Amino acid sequence: MAAACPIGRRATAHPMTHRRTSLFRKNPAAWAVALVIVLAACAAPPAVPAALPAAVPSAVLATLIPEFSATLDLALSPPLPVATPSPQPTLTLAERGLTCATPRSLMLHSAFGGERAADLADAILARGYEAMTYRDVLAGLERGECPPENAIIVSLDDLNTRWNRQEFYDIIAAFQARDLPLVLAVVAHDVTRDAIWETYREWSAAGFEIASHSANHLQFSALSEESLVDEIQGSYRVICRGLGLCPVTLILPFGDGLGDPRVLEIGADYVFHIGISGGQAFGGQPPFQLGRIPPDNDDQDLTLDLLDGTFGVGGN
């Protein structure tokens, strides 16, 4: 039963009144407890609202609670473009009687930085190399042509679909300012961050290739077949959905898995599988397996010399 409020009632004599007063004087803590009990008994009951308050709009809630935002980005974003499937060569290279030399192929990471990237781009232009993407190579194969002898492909690894460090933008800007394309190897987690995908769509429209770098950048040789499906086919679907254009290139994390029959089978939607070692020539039927090398960090003319010494040119 709730206690009755004593405030406003006439005081009446009670034989214990004197004892209570003495107790409170000797023990202030007892007085404080009694005061809380009295105030609680006299507090007005909360008013019942006539109607429940309106729900907070999801868009507002997303700005107030960052953890909530990630789950709403996709719902609040404009509709994603319809994906265009990856083209496959209408005839295999074997059917065309072609064996092609892998173009000079270089891999970069964000640590390379914008200044070195500018030096590299200038060196590429000075030597008269033709910068291409793997998608450009595919277009040539469709015409029955191997990559030209002066071709070079530069790929930039480890971009992702959640955030990208400034060095990635600096490297891309250095190449874009010189009208040179890059292959951007994206660790494709999801499609919830539309601002990043809008940037990828802009880069794609400008001639950059968006390639898969798997879903979580794990070492393929250590994964089960089920996990490989998640990494290889999962990232393929994410890029199809976010970009509106399905990838033609799978850049293997750590270069691991080139020649692995499980990777070849699970990654059959891709035209190219890119490792680190090997892959100086390709032929037969896709997926084609191509190699790359890292740059020299100090001398970009030396980087190009290393490329010339590693990769053959031309084809038959």
N-end to C-end Cα span: 98 Å
- Shape assignment: globular
- Low-pLDDT ranges: 8-21, 46-78
Class inferred from helices and paired strands? alpha/beta
Described by its quaternary structure, the protein is single chain
CATH architecture of the domain at 96-310: Alpha-Beta Barrel
Helix and strand pattern: HHHHHEEHEHEHEHEHEHEEEH
The portion of residues forming beta strands comes to 5-15%
The number of E-state strands comes to 10
CATH topology of the domain at 96-310: TIM Barrel
Q: Cα-atom Rg, whole angstroms?
A: 33 Å
| Helix amount | 40-55%
Largest β-sheet summary? 5 strands, parallel
| CATH homolog superfamily of the domain at 96-310 | Glycoside hydrolase/deacetylase
CATH class of the domain at 96-310: Alpha Beta
What is the overall number of helices?
12
Question: How would you portray this structure in words?
Answer:
The protein has 316 residues and is of the alpha/beta class. It has a domain at 96-310: TIM Barrel (Alpha-Beta Barrel). The protein has helices spanning 17-26, 28-42, 58-64, 66-76, 93-96, 113-126, 134-142, 166-177, 194-205, 225-243, 261-266, 300-310; strands spanning 99-101, 104-108, 130-132, 151-160, 183-187, 209-212, 249-251, 272-274, 281-283, 288-290. The strands form three sheets. Strands 2, 3, 4, 5 and 6 form a five-stranded parallel beta sheet that branches. Strands 7-8-10 form a three-stranded parallel beta sheet, with no helix packed on it. Strands 1-9 form a two-stranded antiparallel sheet. Strand 4, helix 8 and strand 5 (183-187) form a beta-alpha-beta unit. The chain is globular and about 45 Å long. The termini are far apart. Residues 8-21 and 46-78 have low confidence and may be disordered.
